[in-house]
Amino acid sequence: MEERGKKADEKKKKKKKEKDNDYPNSWLITTIYKTFRGILLESAFFKLLQDLLAFASPQLLKLMISFTQDKSRYTWEGYLYAVLLLVVAVLQSLFLQQYFQRCFVLGMKVRTAIMASVYKKALVVSNEARKESTVGETVNLMSADAQRFNDVTNFIHLLWSCPLQITLSIVFLWLELGPSVLAGLAVMVLMVPINGFLATKARNIQVSRNTQYSCYTFENILKLYAWEPSFQTQVEDIRGQELKVMRKFAYLTSDSDNVLTAEKAFTSISLFNILRFPLAMLPMLIAAMVQTTVSRKRLEKFLGGEDLDSDIVLKTKTTHLDVVSYDCKTLYLSLLHFKILNIFILCEFSSVSLDIKPGRLVAVVGAVGSGKSSLMSALLGEMHSTKGFINIQGSLAFVPQQAWIQNATVRDNILFGSPHKERRFQEVIQACALAPDLKLLPGGDLTEIGEKGINLSGGQKQRVSLARAAYSQADIYLLDDPLSAVDSHVGKHLFEKVIGPNGILKNKTRILVTHGVSFLPYVDEIVVLVDGVVSEVGSYSSLRASKGAFSEFLDTYAKEQSNQADLQSGNYLFPQCIMDGRCTKYCTFTVGDICICDYKLYKACSSDISSYLLRKNSSIKKSEDADESKQGQKLIEKETMETGQVKFSVYLQYLRAMGWGYTVMVFVVYFIQNIAFIGQNLWLSDWTNDAVDYYNMTYPNWKRDTRVGVFGALGVAQGLFVFLGTLLMANASVNASRILHSRLLDNILRVPMVFFDTTPIGRVVNRFAKDIFTVDEAIPQSFRSWLLCLLGVLGTLFVICLATPFFTIIIIPLALVYYFVQRFYVATSRQLRRLDSVSRSPIYSHFSETVSGLSVIRAYGHQDRFLKHNEITIDGNLKSVYPWIVSNRWLAIRLEFLGNLVVFFAALFAVISRDSLDSGLVGLSISYALNVTQTLNWLVRMTSELETNIVAVERVSEYSELENEAKWVTETRPTEKWPEEGRLQFDNYKVRYRPGLELVLHGVTCNISSTEKIGIVGRTGAGKSSLTNCLFRIIEAAEGRILIDDIDISTIGLHDLRNRLTIIPQDPVLFSGSLRMNLDPFDRFSDEDIWRVLELSHLKDYVAGLQEGLQHEVAEGGENLSVGQRQLLCLARALLRKSRILILDEATAAVDLETDDLIQNTIRKEFSHCTVLTIAHRLHSIMDSSRVMVLDAGKIVEFDSPSNLLEKQGHFYAMAKDAGITREDVTAL
To answer: Where does this polypeptide localize (predicted)?
Structure first.
């Protein structure tokens, strides 16, 4: 922890120094070095000792060989050498393991420090800096880049240790062989620049995985519009480029392996064995360093980005909230969420001077894009102030326009880190009208909410968000249009109980952005914004009197029959008349859509109401059985984790993906290469015996030439085969990667929506990022190493047994011990790795959640709590990383000890049977034995790594085999023109979201004839949105059917169905890409068409005013457009598709009345020949429908024309009365 702190301070210092650069440069490495200096130096010391000891063995070997040659020496000398060999080897093992332990722990610490600082930075990063990277990219910094640093730090000491080993080897070789070493040296030196060149080539290997991220986030929209194919091709293209680069990279690395072959003739084998390691490592290290440089630049750019200027908002002790001449010519419009890509200069707050007294309720009104949300952001200090200041006294609570919900229980979302006080909690829940909803949720307030609040309806999310603010007991409340997402009567309830003059916040300062005209009479002050300028400020009556912009605005929209005077005469504001028609008789008159009653009458009515409420609540079905409610309550299941051995079928699956032909060829090629290697060494030992045979004689030339020739030929053959093997391997693995990835993508796009509701996005992205990365890069690598190691070990044992047949006796017990150690280790290591990858997901999930809720977290000032939470999740992950590191050391010590015993026995047998052995073979067998420790070690490590990595294939295939939704296209295809008339029939339609949950719709039956306009109304959670989901078969029927033009929709393909319907969804969703791509991803329409629909959706002027026009880049999630504009874009989408059935899902919730009017007119005109289903919160918008369907708890309670329903005085009548709609209005329409 203290290290993290230190690190952050250092960063701050660095940042100050280098402000002049666009972002501070190349400070990261030095900072890391300063922080972890201690461990670095310790590990360096151990590495040095180990390197020096490594050179003692060849010297002992030399003595040993001379001992076997000279038969007159005492036997004890031989035994002494054998024991010395053992001692040196054991010491060497111990030092090496100490070094490794320190290095790996260091790597882990570096990764943690980087992750923590990225998170910390994300909490304070300014909006401009945040624009530069999408959520996907920022998560990438935490996952991929931090991991790169981890990997490099593990082997950082090789930078000096490799050159040291090489130099020492060369010195000793010179002593052995004289100048002929230089031939070998020349070859090596030549290889180094080539490797350097390859490494730089490999640099361009990084392709980001962004489209994918946005793809899964908005999966439901893709489904509704049947756009999956378009996105699939986009991702496949990106992937294709990624694979091209990978294949190149693999070819490049294949050259660097065959360095040390031909020169081996001029050496003592064992020194060259020592040399093999550093020379193989150097190119790898260079390549890794290069990749890390890319990561380093990205991290530095992010960590060195601008911070939010915390001085914009002053907290000095004046008594009220001031916004003094807040000039924002270049106000970065940060619409509460993410990055706004372009600087909207719409916000000429040339000088907004507001002065808000404590305890007032101030309403901010204005048209779409007039800067209401920007004013909020400015108050939160998320803007760029050019001059002036804001002074806020006391704590803030903030309710954003689009509710931000955490993946936690309802209770945790509301408490938001405050202590739980039952009374206050209940009070807030009642006030926010959440009590009935909680009754319907399976776990009450302990029900878990999915990511982004996925299992709550829009209105419920908004109310939870409001409840969070109400519970926080702050001094100042910034409410950014919290009432737009809820039905009118719920809105009224909220205003009355929470926000309004009698609500639970009545003594706090409240700033309310609203479109609801009806609430305006009850606020203390109204601020009217026009194009970013405050045009008027004043109370309702004074603004009405002044006949300014506000007055016009009202005259256009408010159906007001009130004379202000009556308001003061003891009348009572009373929203509860919604309950049913019974109380409306007490209303003296209505203002906008609030019923005003005389106070005495109110008393009489309230007793009616309370009895009514009791009845209503008791009638809500209690769940039949406690067990039943438990099932399906936990929304997000724990991530599944395979246990035990990886099934052999998984390996087969990978080999199958590589292609059997490739697989067999790779095996054969590597096998031949190994035979060549052993042959070469046997030839060499035979050659050294010539020295004995031709003792004191001239060495014949023919003999020398054949010796050198055969040796060289074997060397070259080896080189060729290695190269060939690598090429084949590269092709095969790229093949496998392509097949696995496209299978996964293909399937994920076909998975039913339920899967995305119950699976956090982090988990899906994890499969595409981490696991596919493993399949791409780690598996081919470990597969190849494993093969080489296995063949190497077999070769070694073969040679030793050849030299000293005695040795076969020892092999069997050693193999047994070895086998047990390995089994024990692999099981542990594999499970730890699985735990590691499972405990990683929450880190990224929490991170992306934080990034999307930044403005809320900052407003409440909860940064520290989130930092703490992040530290806990990271620690949880480290709990499985650290044991893995230690288990590796445990294994290594045991294995190296075994290896050392092999050396000892090889030497011992050589001494025992020295009379029968020639010195060449002794040398060969001992030098091989010296090498066996390392190879054995690697073999186990590789086996385990292969098992570990193959888990990625297992995880990818798990998601490739998920149950799919119905086919996209089936045999029974409807005609081209279907649905020609657009008739809808629901036939006893029942549906539930997931098996094991209660029904959402209980047997809906109705007929809707062609070109009818149907309004659908009902309380939040009555099943309005579920109805539309059924039409698109996002959720499949439990019973019953839906017919469109007499075709049962469950018989045709999903794309045929979804392509012929059009929806304008509740949450307008846009993808990162051009505006054009958002409207028409398949390029089916001409530009004229697109401009035409933009004109119809009132966006033409806006788009024409953009520099790039249709090519204007939309940020991820459409964050650089206002919510209203996004909604209009969705309308444009619908106009383009021109289908016979149109569904509007609360499509106008986020726009002001004026735009709402425009949209309604467009829909009336353009869709006159269509069947239109409108789900509405604002009853005004459906009063002209042909019929209205009233839903309650998943049943249709009323279904008739609006005028008939008003006559009946049932549910609809109550709702209409409530919205201030009378029969006259209907007839007028």
So the answer is: Vacuole membrane
- Rounded to whole angstroms, how far apart are CA atoms 891 and 897? 10
pLDDT per residue over 1201-1217, tens digit each?
Answer: 888 888 888 888 888 87
| Per-residue pLDDT at 486 | 81
pLDDT tens, 808-854?
Answer: 777 788 788 878 887 888 788 878 877 887 888 889 889 988 988 88
Residue 24, amino acid: P
**Strand partners of residue 985:** 1007, 1043
pLDDT in tens, 650-707: 899 899 988 899 989 998 998 898 888 888 777 777 776 666 666 666 667 777 777 7
Tokens of 698: 């001239």
Given this model, what pLDDT does residue 627 score?
36
Q: Which two tokens stand for residue 418?
A: 């405050």
Q: How large is the greatest C-alpha to C-alpha distance in the chain, in angstroms?
A: 133
Q: Per-residue confidence at 91, pLDDT binned at 50, 70, 90?
A: very high
Give the separation between CA 501 and CA 492, rounded to whole angstroms. Answer: 12
d(CA 550, CA 540): 9
User: How confident is the model at residue 688, as a pLDDT?
Assistant: 66
Omega prior to 575 cis, within 30 of 0: no
Task: Report residue 105 as tokens.
Answer: 């722990």
Q: Is the pLDDT of residue 232 over 50?
A: yes
Beta bridge partners of 534: 529
| pLDDT tens figures, 841-897 | 889 889 988 988 888 998 898 999 999 999 999 999 999 999 989 988 888 888 888
CB 483 within 8 A of CB 328: no
User: What is the residue whose two structure tokens read 């060494």?
Assistant: 681
- Can you state the angle between helices 701-748 and 648-658, rounded to 10 degrees? 100
What end-to-end distance do the CA atoms of the chain give, in Å? 68
DSSP sequence for 992-1057: -SSTTSPPSEEEEEEEE-TT-EEEEE-STTSSHHHHHHHHTTSS-EEEEEEEETTEEGGGS-HHHH
Count other Cβ atoms within 10 Å, centred on residue 969: 11
Residue type, 1091: W
State the amino acid at position 201 in one-letter form: K
Tokens of 593: 């859509």
Single-letter code of the amino acid located at 135: V
**594-598 and 984-991 beta bridge pairing:** unpaired
Rounded CA separation 182/190 (Å): 12
- CA–CA gap between residue 1015 and residue 1188 (Å, rounded): 5
- State how far the Cα of 1153 lies from the Cα of 606, in Å rounded to an integer: 33
> Tokens 């997000």 map to which residue?
636
**pLDDT at position 575, please?**
38
CA–CA separation, 1048 vs 1052, rounded Å?
8
φ, ψ (nearest 5 deg) of residue 664: -60, -45
Q: What are phi and psi of 970, to 5 degrees?
A: -115, 180
CA 1213 to chain CA centroid, Å, is 47
Contact 440, 617 (CB under 8 A): no
3-state secondary structure string across 814-844 = HHHHHHHHHHHHHHHHHHHHHHHHHHHHHHH
Asked if residues 577 and 595 have their Cβ atoms less than 8 Å apart, the reply is: yes
Question: How high is the pLDDT of residue 213?
Answer: 54
Contact 496, 502 (CB under 8 A): yes
The answer for residues whose C-beta is within 8 angstroms of residue 66's C-beta and 6 or more apart is: none
Distance CA 731, CA 1175 (A): 54
Give the sign of the dihedral formed by CA 258, CA 260, CA 261, CA 262: positive
Residue 306 CB neighbour total at 10 angstroms = 17
How far is C-alpha 1202 from the geometric centre of its chain's CA atoms? 47
Tokens encoding 425 = 């909690």
Residue 545 to residues 365, 541, 542, 567, 589, Cα–Cα distance (Å): 17, 6, 5, 16, 21
Amino acid in the structure at residue 751: V
Instruction: State mean pLDDT over 511-536.
Output: 83
